[in-house]
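Q: I have 424 residues here and want to know how they pack in 3D. Can you give me a structure?
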Amino acid sequence: MTLEALHAMFLQHPNVCTDSRKIIPGCLFFALKGPNFNANKFAADALEKGAALAVIDESDYAISDQYILVEDALHTLQDLARFHRRHCKAQVIALTGSNGKTTTKELMYAVLSKKYKTLATEGNLNNHIGVPLTLLRMEADTELAVVEMGANHLGEIEFLCSIAEPDFGYITNFGKAHLEGFGSEEGVVQGKSELYDHLIEHDKYVFLNADDPVQIEKLGAYIKKFGYSTEDHQYFNIQLLGDDPFVRLNVENIEINTRLIGQYNFLNAAAAVLLGKYFNVPIPDMKEALETYVAQNNRSQVIERDGLTILLDAYNANPTSMEVALENLSKQSKKPTLAILGDMFELGEVATREHQEVAELVDELGIDEVYFIGVNFYGVQTDHWQFETFEEFQEHLEGDPIKAGTLLIKGSRGMALERAVELL
């Protein structure tokens, strides 16, 4: 079957599913494979549950004309997404970076949706499967698509760009994330900069934080760029007014009061404003979008509990995001300042050093009380509380509860530290 013919079928059945347990009636089911599963085995089940067609890559399972046999189901999904992207009129905005991708994406979506029919990546479906699924959600009248791209190895962003073919791009920052896969901080910069490389090669537009020297250096004299700055007035000027605890910013003498915590979220909000400015979204509309946005899914959430202000930022963590979160905590006026910190994953051979540096940072910043949880933090030198497991921490808290102050909760996804909220 040709790609054109498959796309024609997709237009008749414009929903794609890859999980036979979550079938949308009338969808196309793609039988993907992984280290521990082979969805070809579940194609019949998907059809029984209402899928219109099943795209498979093993001939033994092709037992009726409802099965479309291809050489590789994943590659076909990616090729179909690229074909559909070219078929649609929407302009694609690619977004990557070490920290803040998902929040920035949601803020961009909130702002751009005020004027345009906008689509954005759902959750963090930002990999070699998630990006195609996002593109396949574009409809004929979609005007803008904000596509988040994640990576933990060199070459991944370049590959995702080859599928999404972005018209615009933005990199939130370059930090100490996925060091195990990228090999070094230099590898992180190189990997994330693949977005810049793709945009420049294809003469597309780059959005940037002009206060980030790495972004300035990487873009050099490239002309097709539009940036924001708090200092350099040759760029669009956006000012931080305060962040205790919520970020307030000034845009062309209009004050925007967000429900976002931390100076790092100023950068995320500023990026959304930058795109709004470029795409001519009125500033009052941007103000409404940013002021009504409330963080979800354990990202920068603020929870009030009987004298205790909880800064729940437990979706993920790496050394860079941990540092800025702790710096923000140290600035909070409501004392004492406390932190529940969980291990940071995917750091490879530098894991011991990076965890020790966090342990030293909390003392430099004057954080009053810290509870370190996890195998890596259990091995650091510190005078603060240390627990090898969450269960040990839970047992401690039962006898010595946290009662008042400002409490940061942060750790890698695998630590699932949002569980701590139920104990407070």
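Q: Anything worth noting?
A: The first strand starts at residue 16 and ends at 17. The longest helix spans residues 263-278.
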